[in-house]
């Protein structure tokens, strides 16, 4: 009799595959438009193709990968206009969240400072995956303090859509130093309870990232579009 993998174990393997693919995106190992071969992923992760296929379907539902008949799965490649729209939505939603923040307690500010110090350490190596994961933790520790959980969930969806793009600019040493410096400025504004200043700094932070992506990827902005 052939042993069958239980649904629980298959679900666990699929979840592990989802996280492994996310890490490849965050590290820049997988690039926009790159094919995703189920056989290669299954072999690398030491699992069967079934949970890999389930993982890819889950990522497709999030808009991170795309499936085409007779071609298989690829990492989503956004057009210049689609990337602009993602950043426009982020700008609008993140500004709302920052304006709803309470005065952050000293302990949380210390945690943010420690996270930024760890980003600085990873940036000096550099460890792109580590920077990406810590950067995500830094921002969402701030966002979730707003209590606007549905809005923050939508922001996170937009972040996931553009992970492969953000990894590209993390390979720039100047960009890595800028991230750490701008995080320090943001922490300072939050310590003073200056929410509007925090919004301004986040707009500048986001715009600098997008400008770097435009340069690296050769994207052209549509006239009339503004990210701030």
UniProtKB/TrEMBL annotation:
Listed PROSITE patterns: HTH_GNTR
Record keywords: DNA-binding, Transcription, Transcription regulation
Segments passing through the bilayer: none
MF-aspect GO terms: DNA binding; DNA-binding transcription factor activity
A Pfam cross-reference name: GntR
Residues of the HTH gntR-type domain: 11-78
Signal peptide limits: none
PANTHER family, per database record: TRANSCRIPTIONAL REGULATOR, GNTR FAMILY (PTHR43537), TRANSCRIPTIONAL REGULATORY PROTEIN (PTHR43537:SF41)
Name of the protein described by the UniProt record: HTH gntR-type domain-containing protein
Organism the protein comes from: Saccharopolyspora rectivirgula
Upper lineage: Bacteria, Bacillati, Actinomycetota, Actinomycetes, Pseudonocardiales
């Amino acid at each position: 009799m052939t042993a069958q993998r239980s649904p629980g174990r298959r679900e666990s393997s699929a979840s592990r595959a989802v996280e492994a693919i996310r890490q490849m995106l965050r590290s820049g190992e997988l690039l926009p438009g790159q094919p995703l071969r189920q056989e290669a992923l299954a072999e690398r992760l030491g699992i069967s193709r079934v949970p890999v296929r389930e993982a890819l379907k889950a990522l497709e539902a999030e808009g991170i990968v795309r499936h085409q008949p007779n071609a298989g799965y690829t990492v989503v490649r956004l057009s210049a206009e689609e990337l602009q729209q993602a950043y426009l939505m982020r700008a609008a939603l993140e500004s709302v969240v920052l304006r709803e923040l309470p005065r952050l307690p000293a302990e949380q500010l210390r945690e943010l400072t420690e996270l930024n110090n760890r980003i600085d350490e990873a940036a000096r190596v550099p460890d792109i995956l580590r920077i990406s994961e810590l950067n995500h933790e830094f921002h969402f520790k701030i966002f979730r303090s707003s209590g606007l959980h549905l809005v923050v969930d939508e922001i996170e969806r937009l972040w996931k859509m553009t992970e492969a793009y953000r990894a590209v600019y993390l390979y720039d040493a100047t960009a890595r130093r800028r991230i750490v410096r701008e995080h320090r400025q943001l922490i300072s504004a939050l310590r003073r309870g200056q929410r509007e200043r925090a919004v301004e700094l986040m707009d500048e932070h986001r715009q600098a990232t997008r400008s770097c992506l435009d340069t690296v990827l050769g994207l052209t902005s549509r006239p009339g579009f503004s990210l701030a």
